[in-house]
Amino acid sequence: MWLNLEYMEHQTSKVKVLIVEDEILLAQDISHRLININYEVIGIAPSVNDALGLIAENPNIDIILIDIILKGDRDGIELADIINKQYDIPFIFLTSHADTHFIERAKSVYPYAYILKPFNDRQVSVAIELALLNFSNKTPERDLLDSKEYTTTDNQVLQIKDSLFLKKDHHFERVPLKEILFLEADSNYCTIYTKSNQFVYSTVLKKIEAQLPLDQFLRVHRSYVINIHSVNGFEGNMLFIDDKKIPVGKTYKNDVFKLFHTI
C-alpha cells in the first residue's frame, strides 16, 4: 500500500548567528572564526537598534553573540532583556574581567553562555555549543566570570523548537524535525537519516530517541525509529521510507500498522 505524502524542500542548514559588537575589527574577527567552523553569520550589528532591525528581518536566527558594552544609549544587557521579552532566541554575552560592575545586571537577563575576551576559535565553538545545550535544557548560565571546564561532545543531540541540532564535523547543523526520515542503530552507533544527509553518533539509539517528540517519531523495531510522516508505503512487515525498507518488529507490529491504517 502506498501513501501519498508530499516531501518538502530539504532544509538542513548551518546554524545562523547574529553578532552584536560595536568594535568593527573585533566583530569581523568573530565573524571569520564562526565562518571557519562552519556557522553562518547573518549580520553584524553595532548597536541595539541595528540588532533589533536584523532580528526582525531574520526570524530564523539561531543564536546571538552580544557585547555587554555597546555605544549608544542602550547596552547589550538592555538588548538581552528585549530578546527575552519579545523573542525566543538564546544569546551569549561577550565580556571581560574589566566589566565586573556589569555582571550582576548581566545575570538578571539569564544569558546562556559567555565568551571572555580575548578568546580563540575553540572558546567560541564551546560557548555556542554550551549556549545551545543550556537553551535546550532551559538552564541559563549564571556564573559569568567563574572559570569552568566544559568538554564538547560529538554525541550531543539537541531539540530546540521544531528542529534537532546535530553534530557534523565538530559543528552543529540545524535539521527541522520534518526533514528526518528515520534512525538506525548498529551496536553502539546510531545513524540519523535525513532527506539530504546522514549523522553518525557513537551512542545507543535510546538516548537519541529520548530527544524526539512522541507524536512524530515511533519505535518500530529494536534497531529503528521512524518519522511517521516520512512513510510513503508498506507491505507485509516492511515500511517504505524514501528508497529504504524498514522492518517492523513483532513487538511493535500491532501499534505500528494500526497507526498507519488511520493515515
Describe it:
By secondary structure, this protein is of the alpha+beta class. It has helices spanning 24-36, 48-57, 76-86, 103-107, 121-137, 205-209, 253-260, and strands spanning 13-14, 16-20, 40-45, 63-67, 91-95, 113-116, 157-160, 163-168, 171-176, 180-186, 189-194, 198-201, 217-221, 224-227, 231-235, 238-241, 244-247. It has 2 domains: 13-137, Rossmann fold (3-Layer(aba) Sandwich); 177-260, OB fold (Dihydrolipoamide Acetyltransferase, E2P) (Beta Barrel), CATH 2.40.50.1020. Helix content is 26%, strand content 31%. The protein has a 5-stranded parallel β-sheet with strand order 3-2-4-5-6, sandwiched between helices. Strands 12-11-10-14-13 form a 5-stranded antiparallel β-sheet. It is elongated and about 65 Å long.
**Number of DSSP helices?**
7
Structural class: alpha+beta
CATH superfamily of the largest domain: Response regulator
H and E order = EEHEHEHEHEHEEEEEEHEEEEEH
Can you give the helix content as a percent range?
25-40%
pLDDT below 50 for ≥5 consecutive residues: which ranges? 1-10
CATH architecture descriptor name of the largest domain: 3-Layer(aba) Sandwich
Mean pLDDT: 88
Number of domains: 2
Please sum up the structure shown.
This protein is of the alpha+beta class and 263 residues long.
Architecture blueprint of SSEs:
Blueprint (H helix, E strand, L loop, with lengths): L12 E2 L1 E5 L3 H13 L3 E6 L2 H10 L5 E5 L8 H11 L4 E5 L7 H5 L5 E4 L4 H17 L19 E4 L2 E6 L2 E6 L3 E7 L2 E6 L3 E4 L3 H5 L7 E5 L2 E4 L3 E5 L2 E4 L2 E4 L5 H8 L3
